[in-house]
Task: inverse folding
């Protein structure tokens, strides 16, 4: 119980910090007032229409990435799995870069193109992994993800090489992840969409426990292995695809957070998944706060920050594992 | 002798695209309280026969009944409440404590919310005690010896509160003491808990000493079925394993001794 309180407290602190910091200096008291709708109109707009949706979206996406990472690590029985393992980041990146290069603007041009790219990549990887009729071989799944990702990356490289410089820069920034475009509308869209996949993953928590033992033991302990794998793979992919299309490719949250939670709370997914959601959200809100402030007024891509935090943490975790 | 748990009549199975049948006209039954050994060389169809009994694959023809019901019609969850299976190898992808791992045996019994109740906890404690691994309950499974880990997995199967216990080459990588401990445990559980037991192994001698009846498989065919002393004759064993042997009696059951080539007194 105290651990959950600590996790909740940590999330609250990160959210508070995320709302308090930003390029426009607003004193904490004014932020508090603006949250309630008081104070001058500009401050209210900054806090309620810029910072708040941005923090909420970062929290939701961080949480979802951590949950999918945890689920995929158990599904493919590989601690190095992350939400982008299955090639969909390559597809999403290709979609986004193509949209940017073609000048398909509008608030939703890039996200929709990224989503389409991610879905196509998922479909392709899934087809590749359905070898031998119906058996979803997770090793083939990983290989399929790697090759589809590499293929998409090479086309993306070609498009970027042929595009004018400003477009390339925009595309690059998108690829490294950003919450610059966050709005209440994107928050609503994502929240409404994420509920079902998150519920499905949580309902499969026991299957994940058993699948991490291997297909055969999982079957004998009562899991319908084939069906569980399909449902988990498709659900995790669809959840990640929308996260990527809204915020770009943000690495390491889905890789590191599940391991950090496992170290403290063990690996039963009934506990691991919700805890990973809270910690993943916390990390991404904090990383986004850093991305906004460290080099202000210039923003760092948030994916750069998560990697800078994630890599050392990951090395520490691996060291602890080895002992 | 109690109810029949496993029944098979004229079972045949051919893998898709295979020239020969992997299992060819096999019939057997296993009542509660009896331990059946399935022996034979590598590739003789032992594992396929087991997969048929467990409903993992559907027979090309013939019938397999598990608990009186066609084997392949069981859902994995329902079957896990009837049959506990220990396979040869299992490596958890993430660190796990012994007690948690035995609790996995209860998953097929849990309700929609997945919260274990007092009955589940009782079953876990009992299984831990019964398999003499209670003192290991808080250890990480990665720190156990091969034999301890295997006993933990027998305990997990027991926590399923099944009517049948199946060991599939479960001792193949163990040394003598640990192998014997697992066989002793399995035989004891079958007798004292009234389970139907199936032991798949290529260790003919150990099977002969522990099981009530034995099926010796040879290229998909049940070469002989019956009490070990009736089945394990020199002709049958030599024919099936394609190697000259002597058969001697020990403790009332036949024991097979493979012969060396060209040694005086050994006519290989």
Result:
């Amino acid at each position: 119980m105290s651990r959950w309180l600590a996790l909740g407290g940590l999330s609250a602190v990160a959210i508070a910090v995320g709302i308090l910091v930003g390029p426009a200096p607003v004193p904490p008291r004014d932020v508090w007032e603006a949250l309630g709708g008081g104070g001058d109109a500009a401050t209210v707009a900054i806090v309620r229409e810029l910072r708040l949706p941005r923090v909420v979206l970062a929290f939701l996406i961080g949480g979802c990435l951590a949950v999918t990472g945890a689920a995929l690590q158990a599904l493919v029985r590989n601690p190095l799995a992350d939400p982008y393992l299955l090639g969909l980041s390559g597809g999403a990146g290709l979609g986004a870069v193509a949209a940017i290069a073609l000048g398909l603007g509008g608030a939703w041009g890039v996200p929709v193109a990224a989503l389409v790219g991610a879905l196509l990549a998922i479909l392709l990887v899934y087809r590749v992994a359905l070898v031998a009729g119906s058996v979803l071989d997770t090793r083939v799944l990983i290989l399929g993800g790697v090759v589809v990702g590499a293929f998409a990356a090479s086309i993306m490289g070609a498009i970027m090489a042929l595009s004018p410089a400003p477009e390339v820069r925009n595309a690059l920034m998108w690829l490294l992840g950003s919450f610059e475009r966050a709005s209440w509308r994107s928050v609503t869209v994502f929240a409404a969409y994420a509920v079902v996949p998150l519920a499905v993953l949580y309902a499969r928590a026991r299957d994940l426990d058993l699948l991490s033992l291997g297909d055969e033991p999982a079957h004998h302990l009562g899991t319908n292995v084939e069906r569980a794998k399909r449902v988990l793979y498709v659900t995790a992919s669809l959840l990640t695809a929308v996260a990527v299309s809204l915020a770009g490719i943000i690495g390491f949250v889905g890789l590191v957070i599940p391991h950090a939670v496992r170290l403290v709370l063990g690996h039963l997914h009934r506990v691991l998944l919700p805890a990973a959601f809270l910690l993943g959200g916390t990390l991404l809100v904090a990383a986004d706060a850093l991305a906004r402030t460290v080099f202000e007024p210039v923003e760092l891509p948030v994916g750069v920050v998560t990697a800078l935090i994630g890599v050392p943490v990951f090395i520490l975790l691996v060291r602890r594992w080895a002992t | 002798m109690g109810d029949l748990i496993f029944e098979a009549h004229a079972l045949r199975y051919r893998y898709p695209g295979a020239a020969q049948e992997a299992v060819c006209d096999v019939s057997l039954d296993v009542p509660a309280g009896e331990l059946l050994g399935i022996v034979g060389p590598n590739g003789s169809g032992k594992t396929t026969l087991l997969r048929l009994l467990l409903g993992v694959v559907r027979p090309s023809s013939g019938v397999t009944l598990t608990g009186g019901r066609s084997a392949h019609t069981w859902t994995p969850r329902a079957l896990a409440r009837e049959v506990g299976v220990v396979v040869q190898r299992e490596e958890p992808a993430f660190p796990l404590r012994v007690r948690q791992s035995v609790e996995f045996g209860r998953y097929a019994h849990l309700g929609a919310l997945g919260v274990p109740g007092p009955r589940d906890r009782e079953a876990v404690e009992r299984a831990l005690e019964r398999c003499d691994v209670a003192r290991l309950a808080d250890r990480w499974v990665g720190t156990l010896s091969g034999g301890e880990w295997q006993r933990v997995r027998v305990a997990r199967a027991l926590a399923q509160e099944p009517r049948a216990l199946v060991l599939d080459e479960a001792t193949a990588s163990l040394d003598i003491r640990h192998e014997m401990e697992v066989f002793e445990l399995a035989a004891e559980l079958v007798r004292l808990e009234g389970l139907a037991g199936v032991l798949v192994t290529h260790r003919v001698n150990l099977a002969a000493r522990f099981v009530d009846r034995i099926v010796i498989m040879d290229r998909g065919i049940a070469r002989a079925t019956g009490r070990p002393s009736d089945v394990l004759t020199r002709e049958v064993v030599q024919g099936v394993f394609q190697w000259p042997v002597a058969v001697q009696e020990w403790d009332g059951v036949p024991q097979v001794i493979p012969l060396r080539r060209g040694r005086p007194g050994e006519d290989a």
Observations:
- Residues 41-75 of chain A form the longest helix (35 residues).
- Chain A has a mean pLDDT of 88.
- The radius of gyration of chain A is 20 Å.
